User: Fold this.
Amino acid sequence: MRTGIATVCLSGTLEQKLRAAAKAGFGGVEIFEADLVTSPLSPEEVRALAEDLDLGLDLYQPFRDFDSVPDELYRANLRRAEAKFKLMGRLGIDTILVCSNVATASAAYADDDGLRAEQLHGLAELAADHGVKVAYEALAWGTFVNDYEHAWRIVADVDHPNLGTCLDTFHILSRGWDTEPIERIPGEKIFFVQVADAPKLSMDVLNWSRHYRVFPGEGQFDLPKFLGHVARTGYNGPVSLEVFNDTFRQSDVERTAVDAMRSLIWLEERTAKHLAAAAASPAGAAAEPAAGAGVGAPTAAQLAAASRAYPMSLTTLPQVAPPSGINFAEVKSADAAPSTLELEQLLAQLGFESRGEHRTKPVSLWTLGEARIIVNRQQARGVAPAISALGFDVDNAVTAVARALQLKAVAVPRTSQANEEVLQAVQAPDGTEVFLCQDTLWTEEFGQGAPALGGQAPRIDHINLAQPWQHYDEGVLFYSSVLALTPQPSQEVSSPTGLVRSQVMQTELVEGERAVRLALNLAPWVQADSVRGTVEDTFQEHIAIAVPDLVATARACRARKLPFLRIPENYYEDLDARFALEPEFLATLRELDLLYDRDEKGDFLHFYTATVGSVFFEMVQRIGGYDGFGAPNAPVRHAVQHSLRTARAAR
Amino acid sequence: MRTGIATVCLSGTLEQKLRAAAKAGFGGVEIFEADLVTSPLSPEEVRALAEDLDLGLDLYQPFRDFDSVPDELYRANLRRAEAKFKLMGRLGIDTILVCSNVATASAAYADDDGLRAEQLHGLAELAADHGVKVAYEALAWGTFVNDYEHAWRIVADVDHPNLGTCLDTFHILSRGWDTEPIERIPGEKIFFVQVADAPKLSMDVLNWSRHYRVFPGEGQFDLPKFLGHVARTGYNGPVSLEVFNDTFRQSDVERTAVDAMRSLIWLEERTAKHLAAAAASPAGAAAEPAAGAGVGAPTAAQLAAASRAYPMSLTTLPQVAPPSGINFAEVKSADAAPSTLELEQLLAQLGFESRGEHRTKPVSLWTLGEARIIVNRQQARGVAPAISALGFDVDNAVTAVARALQLKAVAVPRTSQANEEVLQAVQAPDGTEVFLCQDTLWTEEFGQGAPALGGQAPRIDHINLAQPWQHYDEGVLFYSSVLALTPQPSQEVSSPTGLVRSQVMQTELVEGERAVRLALNLAPWVQADSVRGTVEDTFQEHIAIAVPDLVATARACRARKLPFLRIPENYYEDLDARFALEPEFLATLRELDLLYDRDEKGDFLHFYTATVGSVFFEMVQRIGGYDGFGAPNAPVRHAVQHSLRTARAAR
Assistant:
């Protein structure tokens, strides 16, 4: 599949954008006019740079407000177009995007497709003189033409070799147009395909389009189905990203380009799966296969067949199943710092046992049942201790790593001794190292091996990671594409320093259990001059351990003098008003600083520890299939933690 | 007017919120339940603190999902309510807000106002036992009750002394409900009034409400008209702010509270004006008086009469006319720094003349026609030179300052010698000092007085100030309430580091001229790790001078070796494609690095200088009533400036 990206997706100057797109591996770019107009590079220099970078210049865009205008304006528009055609000749670009008119369309021609055809025919004739192809696109908010089928009918009527259509997923899916009829357009009359994903927002389509588009896999559009229709037309041109996003415009250009490339690789694979599934069961063609290679997903042979069946060849990746558990979590801390001792004390008070030091590194292993935590005392940065790495249980680590690398994940450089387990890791967008583990043999490198335990043993229930705002969407795509986790609808909870947005990524329920739960949290950015918070407010993260009997665990922890997060009395009064709990049970919650929640499936009990550096711990008990995270209790936690931090900062 | 604020408007802990509200001068607060539940203060301690602070506890809120439910849930809801009524007794709060059901309303009762009346009657009876008053409110997204008139009909049917209604401007105006019928509700049955403003957004009302509310005067709702209706009912209770806003939740609690208080003072005055205007001309009751006390605005006597005519007394402020010009701009710079010399050189190259040193301070005056720029070489902070003060021409400085102080503006402390003009200044939200000037006698304190000049003389056309993101809305309210400037619809332009939002504040057109134009710019926050920008990207600001013949000015500046901002050749090619300019004229633009724009009224010519510190200059010529700022050219400027800054940073 030929991949492309519009320069408007990226931050920086035109030159920076082109270099970043090439470095990320794109086949071509769309030159967004404003990027050229504001650039000191001449068209010839842009062309030479793209050639040097082996980057195609696939589209010049946008050309606006051409059709449905009175004759005088039509002639002015032709003159304007000719200037751009000449410019394209200097750039070496052969295709221009012409959008349906939004600003100057005359009401007199509201229903006059005949006039539109005539004007587009005139444009196509002029284009032919300059060796240019015109791709006519229906904008979702076009005055008279806002439906891709309408745009195509006009193009079909004109029937000129230099006029085709451009399909843009945002303009089509935001309006909810049926995508089935795409297959009735001959592939050679589709001159360009632009893709963007978006969260499903209920707002005016223009603002939704200009600010909230995201890369494929970061939103909620069914893009594999769309691209499946396109593939069946015989289209074999670029599949190019056009994503207007306020954050991407502000983010580092090189990493945004990599995120973008990952999204197209993901889309390519998902499209191949969609086509293979549809071919295998034509009746269920519309059904989307589950994330990863779950039950019923197409086989490698079916995928390969699907990718060979269409002119648009679809490369696929090594297939992996979603992880079956969290193998370990690693916390980095500075060697011999007081906070390291505090962290180790906290683990001991929680009931973790020290399994000794690593043979060669300043690293220790702590376990509680099947929950493994590594305390790494080398190279701490920022507010330490902090969560630095997560291990995920996978069927085949070699395949999983190969997949991650093909998805442009960056391998973490590791030095291993000859006799050590070789653990492979890649870096998540927030810098967390993600290890892909097939077993726990690595634990033998510590003094005492940790015994494997049964089903009721404590284990890591979930991990909550703080995300920098500029990598939030990237994080969603990373964990879904690399690890086959499934994003849930995002939630917001209030804190004293602002709203915290939380995005849960998890595996599917298997026999009432979820193997992996990961929450990505976007906390408000705290600045010294804006609010009486501390920078730690922004980057708190935690590890939650599931235990079979939380009350017993809490009592044991209390006996070990664990510093609990103290819950205000007002919380328990509100809890009682909401749930009418048994007085004895309520008294136990109160006594032990436990929090409580209930959903339609069951009950949730949990408590939190004090924070060390930017890390704290949570102990949880899920009863009867409760499937949440106690979100209604999160504001209480945030408020108490905030008060502790500001009190500490004031000291 | 009794003023109030809901604790949810503010950041921080409950204690911080109460202290900030009291300090800003609020009469009372609404306790938002989550703020109490998460607080370590007992209800009795909250009550005692409020008494200490002389702050009323006027409302407990919200109580959700009460009505339209089956009997079993109704009984559970009564139990839940009773717990809250007891809590209110401990807090000493006598009114609770009950919202129409959004979560648990049963479809069986969709049209059953009889059942709703019965259930609310039961609640009112229970409330009476506890000495509590229930204020029932229709949420804009209530399942069955989403219209204030509907809520009122039910309350009227119940006819119980402990049941009244709550009117909330957001829930009423966001749905576009007619506000006229408010006057048919007896004032004593309105138990509470909540006010919020909002920009007019086309999005789902729940998200609009939860994230985008702003304080009165910062959005687009017609709140004076609304409050006029309320005043006419005889209502005399609190007018309380309930504003859910992502930024305010993150901002410093004390300054947000002051911003909030200013908004109510503004609203009080605007309501009095609305009532006075309506009384003076009953036919035009709906017409809103213009900002400030423009032509045809009510007299002080009429205002006073209006404020006495209703139980809700409306205090008014000293009246001021919008400013008639920009008296001067001050740029702060460090004494003897190379950048100060660079700044003074730039002014000289622009044609400014040095009018000498101030008699007693390290301050110099530069003039070009009627444009006065002060270079202040004391106390520079941040990236200097930077714009530090603006002088506005007002009719009466004493009145203008009195008004500003009543609007909670902070006076700038000044030390003046006995024989100096006493200039009075207040601080704008971004820290800019705003001077209120009646004349230019102060210029005599410099070596040579600057001569007064005629109509065609150069003058300050506009000032463009960078705003910190957390004070953007506050800035809009400050300049409209204190200086009687009128906000225009905001605009966005792209830059290499993200979108720049621009909010123009200006005086009305008088004979085709605008006396004052001010643009507040919100630039993307540049962080070192997120984009290859520099922190200066965020805080660029400029002073624009209008001249009668820009081409001549540009030639003269070029002869003086002014460092122009160099405009890329691609810009001129695009300009030609868009406007088909005369070749000779285009050649002149190109030769002199001039930019060009056109609107329906006329043409605009302008150029920019290089930047010193965070300040640059623009020279403009408005031809034939052009009324914009050359916004289509802003991306070119941003791109060129960004390239220069990153090149300099790389050196």
